[in-house]
Sequence to fold (407 residues):
Amino acid sequence: MKHIIILGDGMADHAVHRLGGKTLLEYAATPNMDAIARLGRTGRLITVPDGFLPGSEVANATILGYDMHEVYEGRGPLEAASIGYDMHDDDLALRCNIICLADGVIRNHHGGHLTTEDSEELISLLNERLGSPNVTFVKGIQYRHLLVIRGGNKHIICAPPHDHPNEPWTSLLVRPEEGYEEEAQPTADLLNDLIIKSQEVLAEAPLNVARRREGHDEANSIWPWGGGYRPKMLTLQQMYPEIQHGDVISAVDLIRGIGHYAGLHNIVLPGATGLANTDYEGKARAALEALRKDDFVFLHVEASDEAGHDGDLQLKLQTIENLDRRIVGPIFKEISSWSEPVCIAVMPDHPTPVEIRTHVKEPVPFALWYPGIIPDNVQTYSEVSCVNGSYGMLRLTEFMQKFMSIN
Fold:
């Protein structure tokens, strides 16, 4: 039995008054995910352990079977692996967003949907003006970059910018964890100094001069967060003997980094953007091609999460329907006719409700199907319907254990 997980990042949501009290998954047209639920079995999964924030790094790694208490080191080291930055033992790697500040608050976490091409200019400028033997900016994708502090201390509290839209940025500056004030304060001071100086540097960038003149959101500040050291993770092949060769498909450095440490082959698609304009068909084709030769595929689509962070109800509905029609449908139809059986699972990693615009720590619905499965009584796929699923409520690594035991 081969296995594929199709994950719509942040796809789950809350009931929305504008939709007649339905969630987006209930309201959207999702005939293919509904078919997997109707013909297969469903349940809910707690993806975030106690004591952890509901970040995508935690939720996705947990879904893949990792115990966060054993392997968690933050987003930065995972993204370093994806970018190809070889961390030293004394490196502190942090995710470094380029964000938009306006009127004293965080207007958005993505610098006005900064493109990868535009960000190259900004990262080069930051390295030229603020880089040093102990401070390095590393270009990633779009607004998602890396900041490496040689000899930095990880015991600091950094606010993820997507969790604090429209909040005053000065109240969210880096501070040491309780009990680590003496050793971590220098790192916190350095990062705060870089944040403030970056605003002076980025204000001079031609990109922002043009955006300011045209009245568009500027990419005018760095925002470091999610720092940690190089993680120690077993590969999925070591954890699950059913997986000999596996692949990850994503436009997001974080997910590619998890895949790197998990021993998965990263399939990079030129048209994969992490936004609503991503190449859905290309991802579906790549997943099917990978499944023909390999045992396991983790297909990640970021678009719903970005729409949720922007509070864009219609766009998030569109991303859910695109996932269903342009990825889930073609893959489900194709593998259903294969002689070699494939187990398919559809799920989000966490909810990103459009009316809150940030991740929340709540269970997510999942549906899975494979040839010969005995269906439960759930007829549609949503946060509400899957409450009645035959898998009940799974916790953390239990999903991957059950998923990989299907042979």
